């Protein structure tokens, strides 16, 4: 080793010893923080107080941001890091179980981890109905399910289950979806079959037709199941997220093969919480109108009269009677807002059935 390199090595070693010592201190302090969190949890439980205290969390963020002003730990990094630390502190006070549409490494899993800051017990379930069931029977506190893709539209199964379920929507979270072609093979010419979830295949249709015109396309229950199958089979590939490549030890043969760059999926968190207003909220209602001319118009008229923005309107067959539909409307605002309350009160007499499924913070996509 040259003298220069030796000097570099020694300098790195010295600095890395300091980093190791800082990491040890950070870890010890984090453990101490969680221990204190547990004590706070015991005090709150005795007093019947909720674990989550948003105003306390906000004051912590504000204090830390001011303390770090002009220094390398930015505002964004503080929110990211301390968001995770506080989620972990809440988690030691009361562990949450979150069922999601699995298996592991699906987009729904990633969305669930993102929404709950990686804190909680995450339980994969095979179908959307199973996720609902876990939460309805109380084995899990929350469920995470896909509800809409920007290219493919609504996930009807989720809407149908929500219509019949007593659960509420507690939150929504959006994930930019990117599809990669993953395989054990190292070149496209060796790929004869491509596995994936029907939506992922549909979203990559053009790329697959151009680059793998002779490959057989086989639908699977999830992109993760497709990646697992591709990992076991020579000549096979999967359309899945790049996270699956690391999990199943696959090569990324092509990245971003989706037909449109604006592929985003919206997920719902379902549970029993009633979420407080944040100032940027949405309220989902479901309603059924009579089968007479103008019924939908008169159902929705109060929204127009009160100048409430209708973000989305979908319809689905009720399945109770042929050609009968229920409607799902997302309104801008919170169910505790006077205007939203008034609108729903005015809509109710014009509908055969109406329920508020939840008010929750809008995701920022
Ligand atoms: O101060 C509390 O009440 C805590 O439970 C601690 C803590 C935190 O991590 O700092 C965690 C949860 C609350 O939402 C607020 C703050």
From TrEMBL:
This is Bifunctional chorismate mutase/prephenate dehydratase. Residues 6-97 form the Chorismate mutase domain. Pathway: Amino-acid biosynthesis; L-phenylalanine biosynthesis; phenylpyruvate from prephenate: step 1/1; Metabolic intermediate biosynthesis; prephenate biosynthesis; prephenate from chorismate: step 1/1. Residues 97-272 form the Prephenate dehydratase domain. GO terms for biological process: chorismate metabolic process; L-phenylalanine biosynthetic process. It catalyses: chorismate = prephenate; prephenate + H(+) = 3-phenylpyruvate + CO2 + H2O. Keywords: Amino-acid biosynthesis, Aromatic amino acid biosynthesis, Cytoplasm, Isomerase, Lyase, Multifunctional enzyme, Phenylalanine biosynthesis. It is found in: Cytoplasm. GO terms for cellular component: cytoplasm. It comes from Desulfobotulus alkaliphilus. Catalyzes the Claisen rearrangement of chorismate to prephenate and the decarboxylation/dehydration of prephenate to phenylpyruvate. Residues 284-361 form the ACT domain. The keyword Transmembrane helix does not apply. NCBIfam families: PRK11898.1 (NF008865). The record marks 265 as: Essential for prephenate dehydratase activity.
């Amino acid at each position: 080793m040259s003298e220069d390199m030796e000097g570099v090595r020694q300098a790195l070693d010295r600095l890395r010893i300091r980093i190791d010592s800082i990491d040890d201190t950070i870890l010890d302090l984090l453990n101490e923080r969680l221990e204190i969190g547990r004590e706070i949890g015991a005090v709150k439980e005795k007093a019947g107080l909720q674990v989550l205290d948003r105003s306390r969390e906000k004051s912590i963020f504000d204090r830390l941001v001011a303390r770090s002003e002009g220094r390398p730990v930015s505002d964004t990094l503080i929110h990211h890091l301390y968001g995770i630390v506080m989620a972990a502190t809440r988690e030691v006070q009361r562990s949450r179980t979150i069922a999601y549409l699995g298996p592991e490494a699906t987009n729904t899993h990633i969305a669930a981890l993102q929404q709950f800051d990686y804190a909680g017990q995450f339980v994969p379930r095979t179908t959307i109905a199973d996720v609902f069931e876990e939460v309805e029977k109380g084995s899990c506190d929350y469920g995470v399910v896909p509800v809409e893709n920007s290219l493919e539209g609504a996930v009807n199964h989720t809407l149908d289950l929500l219509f019949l379920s007593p659960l509420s929507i507690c939150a929504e979270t959006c994930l930019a979806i990117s599809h990669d072609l993953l395989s054990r093979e190292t070149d496209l010419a060796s790929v004869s079959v491509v596995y994936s979830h029907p939506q992922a295949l549909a979203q990559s249709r053009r790329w697959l037709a151009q680059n793998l015109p002779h490959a057989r396309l086989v639908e699977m229950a999830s992109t993760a199941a497709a990646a697992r199958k591709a990992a076991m089979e020579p000549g096979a590939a999967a359309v899945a997220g790049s996270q699956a490549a690391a999990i199943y030890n696959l090569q990324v043969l092509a990245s971003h093969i989706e037909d449109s760059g604006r592929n985003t999926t919206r997920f719902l968190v379902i549970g029993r919480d009633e979420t407080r207003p944040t100032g940027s909220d949405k309220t989902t209602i479901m309603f059924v109108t009579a089968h007479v001319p103008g019924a939908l118009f008169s159902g929705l008229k109060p929204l127009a009269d009160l100048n409430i923005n209708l973000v989305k309107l979908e319809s689905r067959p009720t399945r109770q009677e042929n050609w009968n539909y229920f409607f799902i409307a997302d309104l801008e605002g919170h169910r505790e807002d006077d205007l939203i309350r008034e609108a729903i009160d005015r809509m109710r007499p014009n509908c055969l059935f109406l329920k508020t499924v939840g008010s929750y913070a809008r995701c920022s996509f």
